[in-house]
Amino acid sequence: MSTVRQLETPGLNLYEQDFFAWTMAQAAALRHNRPEGVDWENAAEELESMGKRDRRELESRLRGLLMHLMKWVWQPEKRGASWEATIVEQRKEILKIFIQSPSLKGHAEQVLTEEWRDARRLASIETGLPLSEFPDACPWDTNRQVLADWWPE
């Protein structure tokens, strides 16, 4: 593969010049068990970055789910298919994250307090209700309620 040869050229920093070509070269070097073709430092950073990206996606989806659950409870007169679809979709996507990365299940519980605070602030803005209308802490169990097929009434 030409990108592998380019990577082996002294002084050429393929990682900075063409990220896609660099990823293909790295994959080829690993598949062919060619450690001399692996850009170890950048590969390690990219792998860490992938894990962090998944963690951020989980946090974002959890925040969105909490916000819509709050709106569902505190504005029942405005419930609609859109809110319901968002709640179902967020739960489905969180489940996909857990299937792909089971170790992130514990992370959801760890960040629930922080995500609740952010979701609470966003729910206040979206609903027009004062922040004080929403509890300071999440009143629901993460696994049995928030992430399950449960609907608050």
Please give a structural write-up.
With 153 residues, this protein is an all-alpha fold. It folds into 2 domains: 2-38; 53-146, no CATH class. 70% of the residues lie in helices and 0% in strands. It has 7 helices and no strands. The chain has helices at 2-8, 14-17, 19-31, 40-74, 81-100, 105-127, 142-146. Helix 1 packs across helix 3, helix 4 packs antiparallel against helix 5 and helix 4 packs across helix 6. It is elongated, with a radius of gyration of 22 Å. The model has no long low-confidence stretch (mean pLDDT 91).
Low-pLDDT residue spans = none
Count of runs of 4 or more consecutive helical residues: 7
Report the portion of residues in β strands. Answer: under 5%
**Mean residue pLDDT:** 91
Protein name: DUF29 domain-containing protein
InterPro entries: DUF29 (IPR002636)
